[in-house]
Amino acid sequence: MRLHVVDHPLVAHKLSTLRDERTDSPTFRRLTDELVTLLAYEATRDVRTDTVEVTTPVAVTQGTRLSYPRPLVVPILRAGLGMLDGMTRLLPTAEVGFLGMVRNEETLEASTYATRMPDDLSGRQIYVLDPMLATGGTLVAAIRMLLDRGATDVTAVVLLAAPEGVAVMERELAGRPVTVVTAAVDQRLNEHGYIVPGLGDAGDRLYGTAG
Ligand SMILES: O=P(O)(O)OC[C@H]1O[C@H](OP(=O)(O)OP(=O)(O)O)[C@H](O)[C@@H]1O
Ligand SMILES: O=c1cc[nH]c(=O)[nH]1
Ligand SMILES: [Mg+2]
To answer: What residue stretch is flagged as signal peptide (predicted)?
Structure first.
């Protein structure tokens, strides 16, 4: 597994406002959207492309087009949905699959309540979206499922990661074709499994509802 922390002043600026407890849901949603496009720029550096011929008003030249099969973008509901528009703006030809997952707040174990994507992902490049990598349970389960379906290249785009979650991913997905792109790796997890300093519950802050 590869970890890429995007070190850029615009990313740091937007992330700081996201962290601020005074930031309301509409602003949180807008900033998440903007931050995802910046992270997506890095995350798609190795997206597969083909060379095509383009006729400009002046001459014929070589151009670039996203390859087929198209990339698959998979937001992890609920909070990952807040990242979908920002990602598909950069990857307009991508297909979208959905994964509904929730972490038990007592045991911190992740469970899956909805899956809607192709059974066969052979050879596909996948971008998984989830704002928070905390214990790593959710992303490890999600990515294992994608690899089991044949995905050959999985990139997780997350806003924030905890070092504990990164270590779990590195252990559980060692040697697998997996990359994590994040805006920051924070200090630690607290006793409730929340990232410190973090930004709180991403789903609640995006949608204004607890749960
Ligand atoms: O790394 P982990 O310890 O597994 O925790 C991270 C998960 O927790 C949050 O989702 P949550 O379960 O709160 O669901 P929600 O998106 O519906 O709020 C977050 O969006 C991740 O999916
Ligand atoms: O800090 C955290 C940890 C898990 N899920 C969140 O939304 N926030
Ligand atoms: Mg939540």
So the answer is: none
DSSP one-letter string for 112-148: EEEEES-S--TT-EEEEE-SEESSSHHHHHHHHHHHH
> What pLDDT shows up at residue 46?
94
Q: Into how many domains does the chain fold?
A: 1
What residues flank ligand 2, with Cβ below 6 Å? 79, 132, 134, 193-195, 198, 201-203
How high is the mean pLDDT of the chain? 97
The protein residue whose alpha carbon is closest to atom 6 in ligand 2 is 201
Domain that holds residue 58: 2-207
Q: Which atom of ligand 1 is nearest to the CA of 165?
A: 1
Q: Which atom of ligand 1 is nearest to the CA of 202?
A: 20
Instruction: Supply the pTM of this predicted model.
Output: 0.96
ipTM reported for the complex, 2 dp: 0.98
Q: Which residues are part of the catalytic machinery? A: 103, 107, 201, 204
Tallying the residues shown for the chain, one arrives at 211
